[in-house]
Amino acid sequence: MNSLYFHRARFTLPSTFLEFLQQRFVGACRSRLTLLWFVLVLALPIFAQQDWIRTGTGLGVEKVRIAVPDFKAASTVPQSPDLLKTFNDTLFSDLDNAGIFDVVSKSFYPLQTPGQPTEVNSSAWSSAPVNAAMLAFGNLGVNGNSVTVQGWLFDMKNVSQPQVLGKQYQDTASSDAVRLIAHKFADEIIYRLGGGVQGIAETKISFVSTRSGRKEVWGMDYDGNNQHQITHLGTTSLSPKISPDGSRIAFSALSKTGWDIKMYSTDLNRLVTFPHYAGTNLSPAWSPDGLKLAFSSSRSGDPDIYVVDASGTGEAKRLTMTPGPDVSPVWNPKTGAQIAFVSGRTGLPQIYSMEADGTNVQRLTDQGYAVSPAWSPNGQFLAFAWIRAYGPGEPGSSDIYLMDVVSKQWVQLTHDGGRNDFPSWSPDSRHIVFQSNRSGGLQLWTMLADGSKQTQLTNTGTNTQPNWSWK
Amino acid sequence: MKQARMKWIMVVFALGAIMTLGACKKKVAPPPPPPPPPPAAPTASLSANPNTIDKGQSSTLTWETTNATDISIDGIGAVQPSGSQQVTPTDSATYHLTAKGAGGTQEATARVTVNQPPAPPPQTSSSDQELFSQNVKDIYFDYDKYDVRPDQQAAIQADAQFLAQHSTINFTIEGHCDERGSTEYNLALGDNRANAVKNALVQAGVTVSRIKTISYGKEKPFCTQSNEQCWQQNRRGHLVYGQQ
Questions:
Q1: What fold is seen in the domain A204-468?
Q2: What tens digit of pLDDT does each residue of A47-81 get?
């Protein structure tokens, strides 16, 4: 079973366990019998709390050990070294980021690295210290304005027919094109070795950045490369959400009359028409079929969740009626049948879920300040930002948590790292991008869905509200 | 013989003249007769009571002179040696009295200051705007709350009273939040705050069509420090003149 199992008690028990031990141990020492009794009693809760959560994405199973020697130059033109370095860095980083590989450090590699299948010395790669189960290798050549990349994936355990993959790519000789080729080849490898889940190396992240002086919508590759400004409204733009087919970005922008839902076409590179509604209109969210938008609107005088056709035609349907702020809806991307959202109807904001028609409203979080739900593409989890202990005098650190929607069990993914908010899932459900001020200002970070490999993606300006593309 | 006689006469005359002239130095002139006593110099005083008036009011000038025969006040003309007269200057004026007499001329002045009424404003709307910003109070909220708390009711009532007296003023209520918490939730909360102030003002008699609401969440803080004093400044319904 390609599943990650992790355990609520792993995060919550150690501190209480230790405290309990410290308090009781002195007294318990008086007699060996008492000590034994306490050890038995203390052991019980550990086994009683086996409330497992699994991501179902192959995260956390034994990782495939893969060696990725630098591709060789197949030409000697001046731009080759730069393009080759870009390619090699990107491929290595993609496979390292994937979360399903144990990528062997390059310092362990043999001196002779292959650029062709005929140059592979199987025993050198499959034995210590490399011990690679898989070997990805190839070459890159520049000819005039075009670049050609040949890449192979070899199974080192299969001596007779080692080739798993052999690909050739051709494109214009630019660093952007070379990065894209590396992403494509990485995704091929990840798809084959990662249980048939599509890789994410070609995915995009939209976000909000202040780099132009105003909050505008920006976009970048999933690994933080190619950061570019998308909107130029000169006002305040927030909450960008990429449509399932990637052709549009819905967001919310401040105009003279208030907050409006705006629609940007990434095909036309301009805003397209979307109706203006009265009141404050916030936090759009796409249905997985791309046909509907859920959003928060205060046209009635109270912020509620509405659903409207993504084309903007037809009447918006009101889903929530309870007084208090309702905001930040997100559809179950697997089924399209449920919507999670944030409501302050009982005071501090909590995460709720309901059917897509507004019925069967259920509260999912039990305390604190819980906002910014993000539903995992496989439908199992909500990632969200939670200040468990919220209130005057509390430290108020906001962390990213994961909740299993069915069991309502949760785990904490970030710890003591400043204010973390606005998680968004990668399409493979293995990664989460989020904003954090742990390095000073607000920047975007990624991590694996088990909380490991937390990596900063942005450095310039203030960057917030990331949204990962659907594919 | 005749010539010798003439010569003799001339010598006598010359001697006589020399003697006469020489005696003049030694003689003391007699004191002149005392002059008649000079005429007494005139005196004059002039006062205004009150010396500060509002425009349209009058003031009384009172003067007294002595030893003057010709007395005049600029702007009034010849007057009696002493007397009083009401004046109603439109602008501040200095009254100048001249008293001439055989003994000379004496002058006296008195100033009447006229307070001008405040100049009418060039446009009524900017005055409304000034009055609005001077008189209308913002409404402050508790942490993560959007109900108008009891200690803010007085401000609501005062605002409603001002708005009733200036019934042509349209205005905007901005909902603001402190920096804690999440961007999207704070924008929704700010909307609730703006509408809470709007509803309270409508209940207090303000016509709903005069009110526009907008939420700024934590996007436009009044204060950017991370402490409770600053956060309270940012948790408010901010009333702004006009509807942009």
A1: Neuraminidase (2.120.10)
A2: 333 334 456 666 667 899 999 999 999 988 888 89
Decide yes or no: CATH 3.30.1330.60 for domain B124-241. yes
Q: CATH assignment of B43-115?
A: 2.60.40.10
CATH class of the domain comprising A64-193: alpha beta
Contact B191 A279 (CB under 8 A): yes
Q: Range(s) for CATH 2.120.10.30 in chain A?
A: 204-468
CA neighbor of A167 nearest in space, from A143, A191, A145: A191
Whole-number Å distance between alpha carbons of A32 and A262: 70
Q: Is the pLDDT of residue A207 over 60?
A: yes
Chain A residues with a Cβ under 8 Å from any Cβ in chain B = 215, 236, 238-239, 254, 256, 258-259, 279-280, 282-283, 296, 298, 301-303, 324-328, 342, 344, 347-349, 369, 371-372, 385, 392, 396, 398, 421-422, 464-465
Give CA B130 to chain center in angstroms. Answer: 21
Examine the pLDDT at A14 and tell me if it is beyond 80.
no
Domain ranges across chain B = 43-115, 124-241
Query: Which pairs with CB-CB distance under 8 Å and at least 24 residues apart come from A255-260?
Result: A256/B244, A258/B214, A258/B215, A259/B187, A259/B215
Q: What is the pLDDT of residues B38-53, one digit of tens each?
A: 778 888 888 888 888 8
Q: Which residues of A touch B188 (CB under 8 A)?
A: 280, 282, 296, 298, 303, 325-327, 344
Q: What are phi and psi of A255, to 5 degrees?
A: -120, -175
Between CA A59 and CA B8 the distance in angstroms is 167
- Chain A positions touching B144 (Cβ under 8 A) are 344, 347-348, 369
State the average pLDDT over residues A343-367: 97
Q: What is the ipTM of this complex?
A: 0.86
The Cα of B184 is separated from the nearest Cα of chain A by a number of Å equal to 7
